[in-house]
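Researcher: Good morning. I'm working through a list of sequences from a screen, and I'd like to move beyond sequence-only analysis. For each chain I'm collecting a predicted structure so we can compare shapes side by side. This is the next one on the list. No need for commentary yet; just the structure.
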Amino acid sequence: MDTKSIPAVELDHITKRFAKVLANDDVSITVNKGEVVALLGENGAGKSTIMKILYGLYHATSGEIRIDGRKERIDSPKDAVKKGISMIQQHFSLVPAHTVTENIILGNCRGVIDYKAKEKEIQELADKYNFKVSASSYIKELPVGSQQKVEILKALYLNARILIMDEPTAVLTPQESEILMEFIRDYAARGNSVVFITHKMKEVMEVSDRIVVMRSGRVTGTLKKSETNETELAHTMIGHELKEIKASGDTAYESGRKRLRVKNLSVKFHNEVPLLSDIDFDIHEGEIFGVAGVSGNGQQELCEAVYGYLKPAQGTVELDGEDITHLDVRNHISRGIGYLASDRHRYGMIADMSLSENMLLKSSYLPGWSSRGMIHWRRLEEYTEKAIKEYTVKAPDHSVTAGSLSGGNQQKIVVAREVDAGRKLIIIDQPTRGLDIGAIHYVHQTILNEKAKGKSILLVSTELSEIFALSDRIAVLYKGRIMGIYRNGDLTTEQIGLLMAGCRIEKDTDVHFSGRREEEIE
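Model: Good morning. Structure tokens for this chain:
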């Protein structure tokens, strides 16, 4: 029998039950050699669970796994690695204080180590796949895209031939995502197999050979990329059509009062380059003010300065005419400001707490939740159950921990809390990072609904499609400076892209735009 025709991986009738949840229900998936299989589905559909079973992080309640046609028992990631399986998870497992080489050989080498030889070996491996990463660099010095390359290098160093990638582009810029797509195509062309867990249709259509769609823990369809399209995939994934969300272009917000004013705001730590320089903008009632830019150009610092977490070196922040620049976060919350941080795990939730407890975070001291030091638990539980229903959170009830939910459902809980807290202003940083198309649609609709209520919204996103779909006005941030503020529709995607790259755009007599880097102007 031709061994090339034997699938690399066969998952047969896998079922996985947790305490109150049926995560996988009779799931069967096949991955062939040299094939890229996209695993597509809503948050909580069971995609990550089935792959964690293959990688040995979870054990199936029933069903069997075959590798190269042989039935295998995979009890741990160590067993999986021995069989040539590696998994790149959403949250990296790197040691920031160690070098690239040290992270890759950690736990994989014994005895006396010739460090220079290992460093050379790893550098050659990086160069082979055109990864622009220095083997001697410290992880803490690398951008997120390069850190992901180190995770991939760890798998390649262990001779992985079956690579599982869980939402690999969730924290990458568009440019970094394209480099990753090139790697996946090259890796599969060498006879290896890739399972690509994602919710982004563009990536599915760009890189996959076959697409397995999951919904509510079951496989609802297996399609060849050449025989399907994004509309069919979306319908198969969520079970219904989605109405397109598009910015109205209405300028009625301009007649409203200016709720937030940011004047000459600069953030700088001692003897360091400024993180923000001379930021000036305002947001009206009922306006969505979008901030576009490549990740790491001062977006997080801007949000934290407006929220009161970072104290500016100069400038002021005013809310409804009141100077709130030097008030603490607690005072910002009490004045009706909500903040949805980009990293929900670090800043938005506590995984080991229940959903009710997470809904109480940041507001336990406000009127209505407690009296004489006693929390009104029944009121809180009813409030949480209402949020679960309204935001279609896939959770059995309010008592389960936030960590037991999928990433998208965790995000919905945080969105529900911050939207409620932001009576006047909601600061939203990367609201749909890691969400599926259905959840993205719901969050976008929620943002528009809050705008309709007259709330002011500061929206930060690296997804230009999201900025264009929601914003009334758009500011572009580059190296801590605003490159310009425009009404939505004034500039094309390409022109916004030029600003994101640090180029200023100038109208000439033929109404074309030419780009010049800010550094060239200065």
